[in-house]
Amino acid sequence: MTADSSDVLIAELRAGLPDEAVVTDPDRLASYRQDMATFCPAGTPAVGVLARETAHVQHALRVASRLGVPVVPQGGRTGLSGGANAVDGCVVLSLEKMDRIIEIDPANRIAVVEPGVVNAVLSRAVAEVGLFYPPDPSSWEISTIGGNLATNAGGLCCVKYGVTTDFVRGLEVVLADGEVLRTGRRTAKGVAGYDLTRLFVGSEGTLGVITQATLALRPASQEPRTVAALFPTLAAAGDAVARVVASGLVPSLLEFMDQRSLRAANAYRNMGLPEHAAAMLIAQSDAHSDQAGADIAAIAAVFSGAGGFDVVEAENAAEGDLLLAARRDSHFALEALGSRLTDDVCVPLSLLADFVQRVEKVAADVGLTVAVVGHAGDGNLHPNVMFDADDADQVRRAQHAFDEIMRIGLEMGGTVTGEHGVGLLKREWLARELGPVSLRVHHELKRLFDPQGILNPGKVLATEIADAPPRP
Ligand SMILES: Cc1cc2nc3c(=O)[nH]c(=O)nc-3n(C[C@H](O)[C@H](O)[C@H](O)COP(=O)(O)OP(=O)(O)OC[C@H]3O[C@@H](n4cnc5c(N)ncnc54)[C@H](O)[C@@H]3O)c2cc1C
To answer: Residues 455, 395: one domain?
Structure first.
């Protein structure tokens, strides 16, 4: 983009937006360049728009469409796949300031929110009226509902309750040309028309900009009971997870931390976690009345039967919260140890033990440490390949290990991303996972919603609109 065309863009944006909504200061703009992914290039934006209402988003998109300028929607920029990274000369369109909870309707168990509402803020607000919004990514204190919707985020409670898409009734979306599309409904049921709501959920800002969401809520659950157990091998922990699920038990959370991530948690916050086992599993039950105690006892028995030791129930909710804090913090605890590449593979539960063993072998083959944490109850693990970013050979080996882990995941009938999305990081792997027909349909949908290719270009699909394969 030339200086002249950048001036025209900024002038046209200013013509329809309040002064404080347009950011041009290079230092401020720099903070909008990228999300929290590693290994993903980030360009330099021409301008930032901090939208406060839907009309601001419409204006930004109308201008961008007219001038053919790329637009990168952003929420909390906590993404782990480069989906929110700027491209050169783009408008970064931040939805963070659209952070109003418009309505909480207990009678119909729904909430209507703007996209910039932080997940934990919504969760606490609905808890005050005895309701529960289950999707709870570990980043819930820093990520937004808009980002959660756009990535179809998962979380810790998803093993029992499902992921973001299971709690969305309807959306307001601004399309590439600035038109407002309303999808879905407020009612508990409704099958009118194609399910456009789910099409936008997980579309990573490539099909439209979400400006409002109607979310389903549940009655508040009981304060959970927690059990943790140590395992002598990763495979034994993987086997325990498969046994819990196969036994028909329904924990509200079933999380995995390996020895390296336990050590990292201790180094990060002196948590006092045990370090003498290959892995730890943490399970919770939030079932009502005596059922939670019975569930936890049954899960403890399954853990022991699978070779678990030091199987301990948390004495109270605070102790359970502490264990979960260690798990939620693992991203930052591992980051404190150096560079890493985070995989997000989800495999069939019955193959979890095999998967962790194969990850161990990959680590041995490349001679690097791979620290594994994850939402084990969903079969969704995050192997973190640790490396020295200043050592070219280690960087190469880390990239190889990262790719190898995705290859193994696909070979096992899994997916290359259980929750973090494709962004820039996994575009080539998405193409492999989808196959040619599904990939072509993806391109056709992209072309339909974004004919000029201005919405978050280069994300999810590796090929630009103009170069996409035509229909045979
Ligand atoms: C410590 C840590 C823990 C994490 N734990 C989890 C976890 O447990 N589960 C999980 O799923 N993820 C997790 N993540 C990843 C990340 O938090 C999620 O992907 C989250 O949903 C991103 O939300 P965000 O508001 O930060 O969005 P951003 O990172 O800003 O954007 C993410 C994507 O959504 C698009 N987007 C954002 N807002 C909109 C909008 N309004 N309309 C259209 N597109 C939009 C962006 O263009 C981008 O493609 C974690 C990240 C960190 C740093």
So the answer is: no
Distance 167 CA to ligand 1 centre (A): 16
Q: Which atom of ligand 1 is nearest to the CA of 330?
A: 1
Residue 418 within any structural domain of the chain: no
Q: Which amino acid is at 82?
A: G
DSSP code of residue 19? G
Q: Ligand 1 site: residues with CB under 6 angstroms? A: 35-36, 72-80, 83-84, 95, 115, 137-139, 143-144, 146-148, 150-151, 153-155, 204-205, 209-210, 331, 419-420, 456, 459
Which ligand 1 atom sits nearest the alpha carbon of residue 148?
A: 21
Burial class of residue 309 (count of CB atoms within 10 Å of its CB; 0-12, 13-18, 19+): middle
* Mean pLDDT, residues 440-450: 97
**Structural contact between residues 281 and 313, judged by C-beta atoms closer than 8 angstroms:** no
User: Computed from CA positions of residues 341, 344, 345, 350, in that sequence, does the dihedral angle turn out positive or negative?
Assistant: positive
- For residue 421, the model assigns a pLDDT of 97
Read off the DSSP letter of residue 252: S
Q: What is the 147 CA–ligand 1 centroid distance (Å)?
A: 4
CATH at 116: 3.30.465.10
Residue 463 has pLDDT above 80, yes or no: no
Same domain, 167 and 206: yes
Dist. CA 77 → ligand 1 center (Å): 6
Q: Please write the tens of the pLDDT for every residue from 51-63.
A: 999 999 999 999 9
Q: Are both 302 and 435 inside the same structural domain?
A: no
The residue nearest atom 2 of ligand 1, judged by CA position, is 139
Residue 141 falls inside a structural domain: yes
Residue where a domain stops, chosen among 94, 125, 156: 94
Q: Which atom of ligand 1 sits closest to the CA of residue 153?
A: 11
- The verdict on pTM exceeding 0.90 is yes
Measured from the CA of 119, which atom of ligand 1 is nearest? 25
CA distance 281 to 327: 10
- Band of pLDDT at residue 472, cut at 50, 70 and 90: low
CATH number at residue 23: 3.30.43.10
Q: Please tell me the total count of domains within the chain.
A: 4
- The span from the CA of 179 to the CA of 266, in Å, is 51
- Separation of 189 CA from ligand 1 center, angstroms? 28
Q: How far is the centre of ligand 1, averaged over its atoms, from the C-alpha of 75 (Å)?
A: 7
Range of the domain at 204: 101-219
pLDDT at 273 over 80: yes
